[in-house]
Amino acid sequence: MYQTALPTPGLRNYVSCFWEGELIMGQHQTHTYHAIATSKVEWLFCYAGNYSTNNIYGQQVKLPAACFYGQSNSCKQYTSTDTTNAIFGVRLYAHAIPLLFDLPATELTNQYADISSLLNNRGKELDDEIRQASTFEKRVAIISGFLESQIQNRLATLNRFEVFITTMHKTGLSVGELCSQVNLSQRQFERHFKYLTGFSAKAFFKIARFENMIEQLGCCTGNVPQNLTSMALEHGYYDQSHLNRHFKEFTGMAPGGYLKLIS
Question: Contact, 68 vs 118, CB < 8 A?
Fold first, then answer.
């Protein structure tokens, strides 16, 4: 079972969506989740099952039950052998981390952080509340209330970056044009941009373009478009070869392998 919910208007600048997935497996089966590159942060509460992954040394490590998974420019696999697995997720725009939690987004790039390291005792309380909540709607309400209080507590900071955030998400503009709109030098712009997204502007837009492509492919699941070249051109890729390189970089697979995975 998988379900999603959109945030309230007051949270839309910080939350992309809420989601929840539950999976029941047979004994001795392994569930593998293939995470691809993303410009967003996943705030996850695993309230049933235990997932693990390999660290940079190839050693298997158990993941915290509640943590923030940062924006990433590479793919990674997570596995569970439990018969029941359930995760509640909050998909955050990366700038929510510095603006609502006072932590530079760069601190989470290609990293994950236990909820307590960012929220101290309040993190443990939220984890307990999510586990005790009986429905998806109640879990959404708990986190929405918490985030709304964070916004109120940090209004001065949010107002200071409001114009910059609105500008940096405009499409079709060069970095130079974006700099002009916020009256910053390119060096100042890049410093602010990396603080808010965890990436340079060039890397961020490269990942965001690929995410848009993947989102369109996801909407076509079960009816995957045959002409990927046309879709590649629509999203600003030079040709199919250009798209293939990004597929390999961000998913670890060729387009055909990834399409088979999501179909």
Answer: yes
